[in-house]
Amino acid sequence: MILIQFKNLKPSELAREATLERIGAIAEKFPDLNDSRVRVTLEMENSPHKPGPDLFTVKLHVPNGRYRGITVSKSNSNLYVALADLVEHLLEKLNRYGDRERVRARNLARKKTKYKLELEEAQQKYP
């Protein structure tokens, strides 16, 4: 489930649809995201003390599920560029997260095999 929040920004149906489309494409590649609650915050920072362009920030947080704890945030002067950057970074982060899980599982399997071999060796030595 994808929840979109607007912070200091007028809610826009176009921004909502673009966000759902981009994050939905990632969710298709990583089906476990569909089971998670994904919170996307679209924010605009406009300082009255510092003149200049507005700064848009897109922040994605996964508070539960397989990818629990993943938080990605990107900022740009254009909301849609920040969203594109976020999607690109999120794709890399999810791939790395999956790689980390595979490495952990492989290391655990190696430890179990090593322990099993040592146990068999000890049983042969001391029947």
Helical proportion, percent range: 40-55%
Number of strands: 4
Spatial order of the strands forming the largest sheet: 1-2-3-4
Strand content range: 15-25%
- Give the overall form: elongated
**At the third CATH level, what is the topology name?**
Double Stranded RNA Binding Domain
Helix-strand string: EHHEEEH
**Chain oligomer state:** single chain
The biggest beta sheet, please? Answer: 4 strands, mixed
Q: Provide the residue-averaged pLDDT.
A: 89
Task: Give the C-level CATH assignment.
Answer: Alpha Beta
Task: Specify the structural class.
Answer: alpha+beta
Looking at the overall shape, the CATH architecture is 2-Layer Sandwich
Rounded to the nearest angstrom, the radius of gyration is 22 Å
**Count, helices:** 3
Regions with little confidence, pLDDT below 50 for 5+ residues? none
Total domain units: 1
- For CATH, the homologous superfamily is named as Ribosome hibernation promotion factor-like
Distance between the termini: 57 Å
Structure description:
The protein is an alpha+beta fold and 127 residues long. It has a single domain (2-90), classed as 2-Layer Sandwich (Double Stranded RNA Binding Domain), CATH 3.30.160.100. The chain contains three helices and four strands, in the order βααβββα. Strands 1-2-3-4 form a four-stranded mixed β-sheet, with helices on one face. The longest helix has 47 residues, at 79-125.
